Amino acid sequence: MFRSDVIAAGLLFVLSAAVFVVSADFPAGRGGDPGAALFPRLITGTIAVLALGLLVKDLTASERSAHEIDPTVVRRLAVVVAFPTIYIFAMPILGFPLTTVAFLAGLMWYSGARSVPVVLGSSIGVMLVLYYLFGVLFQVPLPEGLVPIDAVLPSIVVGLI
User: Fold this and answer.
1) Least enclosed by CB within 10 Å: which of 38, 109, 119, 156?
2) Residue 35 contacts residue 27 (beta carbons within 8 Å)
3) CA-CA-CA-CA torsion sign (127, 132, 138, 143)
């Protein structure tokens, strides 16, 4: 019998440790500023503490309830987890605009949206908002990938600033 709470707590500990390791390379703050690693470490530290509580609760419980997991739910969860994973790994290759439109359109299609104009229009619209917000307004470097679509997009926000 699987102990789902122990497995979940273990996975959350692994996730927290991974974020701590990855955030070690983030730039340190200057003059008392906490630096870029503070926020991700604060969140994953909270997740680790909550995972510890889940683990203690499971190990000290006198009775354990059995959970029946529907394979359809597991399959849907796996697909929803696969979408962002593929998105993260494809973005450096394909670039932010193409990957974001494909990610959003695929996720909407999987969620049941079947109108092609709505799916593509929404995906492109959200990508443009995110691109102009983060790439242009906040000056966050976004991956260009193989196709530099960024150079083709109109610079409407830049003109307004």
Assistant:
1) 156
2) yes
3) positive
- 161 residues of the chain, pLDDT tens digit each: 567 888 899 999 999 999 989 888 888 878 778 788 888 999 999 999 999 999 999 888 888 777 777 889 889 889 988 999 999 999 999 999 999 999 999 999 999 999 999 999 999 999 999 998 888 888 888 888 887 776 777 665 555 54
Q: Are 47 and 15 in contact (CB under 8 A)?
A: yes
Cβ atoms of 9 and 55 within 8 Å: the answer is yes
Q: Which residues of 144-155 are buried (b: 16+ CB within 10 A; e: fewer)?
A: bbeeebbeebee
Cβ–Cβ contacts within 10 Å for residue 119, how many? 19
What contacts 122, CB < 8 A, 6 or more positions away? 104, 108
Other Cβ atoms less than 10 A from the Cβ of 65: the count is 6
**Cα→Cα distances 86→7, 123, 140, 158, Å:** 24, 17, 21, 31
Please give the span between the terminal C-alpha atoms of the chain, in angstroms, as a whole number.
Answer: 60
- CA dist 55 and 34 (Å) reads 30
